[in-house]
Amino acid sequence: QKVADSASIKGCMWETSYRLVIPDSIQTGWFTLALSTELAQTRTSVFIKPKLREKDVAMFLSTNTWNAYNHWGGYSLYTQNKTHTVSANRPQPLSNPFLTNALTHHQWYYQSAEKDTYMAEFLQGENIPFDAYSMEELEVADSTIFQYPVWVISTHSEYWSENMLVYLNQYLDEGGSLICLSGNTAAYVSHLN
């Protein structure tokens, strides 16, 4: 579909061309969806949220940072075509946990989901069951995420809204435990619409 000049800022606003139905029986977690056409192939992160807490760890991936560095459509918070507003409603190449460290992707690679896989692999290797969440889940903070005994903030979680910080403090005040492995954590105030 056509890509408007404002797609980086206002989103693509595309019509739905394909709908994937995910069965209720699928396990919760962080998955990679591989998409291909005759013209291109890509991978993207997909989160299957639990309706009830079944695991002991909630891991929050650096999705706001992925979006900030994403220059798909021409603009990001960092490229030479810099803007102060970016849309999450556009392709998200940095959500690909298998992004390679090629020269054309060098900056992207260090801000991508590939880095978040290290913590996921560690937890899996130690047989610690976890649910993975996007950072945006802290914006609304439904009651399910407050039920986890441990929250993990993964790799490079720069962009936080005021609500996210309020909910994090509430969680800690109520006795929750936090493991923060993120550099530059909450370095920039963000507004999510």
As a percent range, the share of strand residues is 15-25%
Helix content: 10-25%
Name the average pLDDT: 89
The largest beta-sheet arranges its strands as 4-3-5-7
- Beginning-to-end CA distance, first to last residue: 24 Å
Helix count from the secondary structure assignment: 6
Encode the helix/strand succession as letters. Answer: HEEEHHHEHEEHEE
Give the overall silhouette.
globular
Please state the structural category: alpha/beta
> From the alpha-carbon coordinates, what is the Rg to the nearest angstrom?
17 Å
Low-confidence stretches: none
Structural commentary:
This protein has 193 residues and is an alpha/beta fold. Helices cover 23% and strands 19% of the residues. It is built from 6 helices and 8 strands; from the N terminus they run αβββαααβαββαββ. It has helices at residues 7-10, 63-69, 106-110, 113-125, 137-140, 162-173, and strands at residues 29-36, 41-48, 57-60, 130-133, 150-153, 159-160, 177-180, 188-189. A 4-stranded parallel beta sheet has the order 4-3-5-7, covered by helices on one side. A two-stranded antiparallel ribbon has the order 1-2. Strands 6-8 form a two-stranded parallel ribbon. Strand 1 (29-36) and strand 2 (41-48) form a beta hairpin. The chain is globular. The protein starts with 6 loop residues before the first helix and ends with a strand.
